[in-house]
Design goal:
This protein has 13 helices and ten strands. With 351 residues, it is of the alpha/beta class. Strands 1-2-10-7-8-9 form a six-stranded mixed beta sheet, with helices on both faces. Strand 4, helix 4 and strand 5 form a beta-alpha-beta unit. Helix 2 packs across helix 3, helix 3 packs parallel to helix 4 and helix 6 packs parallel to helix 8. The radius of gyration is 20 Å and the shape is globular. The structure holds pyridoxal-5'-phosphate. The site of pyridoxal-5'-phosphate has 19 residues, from helix 8.
């Protein structure tokens, strides 16, 4: 038993050692002189999203807590990206994996989990994923529990967590201490790690959560209550949770910017124009929030840098967020927002 755990931990540590850091991509826009934008490309992980970091941490956490044994089934509730990364690591460790996902999850994500040997347990109501995952756990599966454990499974003081990585990569830049870091909140793990690390390092950098309009974190944060639920469903996967997740830490967030879905989609489309490759909807949400904060900085005459994340690969949304027919069926028209964003980054006189 202990021998298998030792070997499993060694496998995960070897995988981490083989992995390279993700790029911090730089952009400047004509309309924002003196302001540097940085994009941490988390889509570059082997399993395609920032959830690669989380899945590695969750498996290590389960193993080192003695909760995971040889041959045991592994389960988690997910909107898809986590399921793909967890399936990837389950395969590495030779463990059977089942993902509990909303039936409306992007088809490519469901296919990706299956291609990695995972099983998909699809539920109609996204709010039921938690209960269903608990049911699997009651039947003997190890619940990785991203929503319950993301915030503590990551080493927030360092160990090459995402915050330490970003700040290290900024070291030689003109503004190495960013004015803002902008990220989404799904499990809340990323914002918790970044918020804690900023304090640990004694920086003035502020943390902004970019949230789909009307989602639970925004309402809960604004009204200071943890029982908030979402008023509006979002098509942006990975963020915009229906409830305030246990890992959403209000105290370390300085600002929440709410973004309508059409703007997030426009943001994702704009990212493709900027970088020549596709990223997912939550990356678009992040970009919209960055432009809002940068506009405030510019209007106050401030210079500095902003950092945000490119959370996952856009190919996953070819049949959804990048399909005009799919968007039209849902009454989402990103074109006006896209035009406005192009104008906003190009500035006056760009025609
Ligand atoms: C999970 C996720 C996020 C949010 O990250 P958390 O650390 O879980 O809060 C953002 N975008 C995508 C695509 C995700 O899968």
């Amino acid at each position: 038993m202990r021998a298998w755990v030792r070997e499993a931990v060694a496998l995960l540590r070897r995988e981490a050692a083989r992995s390279a850091d993700t790029h911090l991509l730089h952009q400047r826009f004509p309309a924002f002189p003196g302001i540097d934008f940085y994009f941490k490309d988390e889509a570059a992980h082997p399993s395609g999203s920032l959830k690669h970091r989380l899945a590695r941490s969750l498996f290590l956490y389960a193993l080192c807590n003695g909760r995971l044994r040889e041959g045991q089934q592994v389960v988690d509730a997910s909107s898809g990206s986590t399921a793909i990364s967890e399936a990837w690591f389950a395969r590495l460790l030779g463990l059977p994996f089942v993902a509990v996902m909303p039936a409306c999850t992007a088809p490519r994500k469901i296919a990706a989990v299956r291609a990695l040997g995972g099983q998909c347990d699809l539920v109609d109501d996204p709010a039921h994923v938690y209960m269903r995952a608990e049911w699997h756990a009651a039947n003997g599966a190890c619940h990785l529990d991203q929503f319950g454990l993301a915030e503590r499974a990551t080493d927030w003081r360092g160990n090459n967590n995402i915050a330490e990585s970003i700040l290290g990569q900024l070291q030689r830049e003109p503004h190495p201490e960013p004015a803002w870091v902008v990220c989404g909140a799904g499990t809340g793990g990323t914002s918790a790690t970044i918020g804690r690390y900023l304090r640990y390092r004694g920086l003035d950098t502020r943390l902004c959560v970019a949230e789909p309009e009307g989602a639970a974190f925004a309402i809960g944060w604004r009204e200071g209550r943890r029982d908030a639920t979402c008023r509006q469903c979002t098509v942006i996967e990975g963020i915009g949770r229906p409830r305030v997740e246990p890992g959403f830490l209000f105290e370390i967030v300085d600002e929440v910017v709410e973004v309508p879905d059409a703007h997030s989609v426009a943001g994702a489309w704009l990212l493709e124009a900027l970088f020549g490759r596709r990223y997912g909807g939550s990356s678009g949400t992040n970009l919209v929030a960055c432009l809002e904060l940068a506009t405030r900085m510019r209007d106050r005459g401030e210079r500095g840098s902003l950092v945000t994340l490119l959370c996952d690969r856009g190919e996953r949304y070819a049949e959804t967020l990048f399909d005009p027919d799919w968007l039209e069926e849902r009454g989402i028209d990103p074109l006006p927002a896209l035009e406005a964003m192009h104008a906003a980054i190009d500035g006056p006189g760009s025609g």
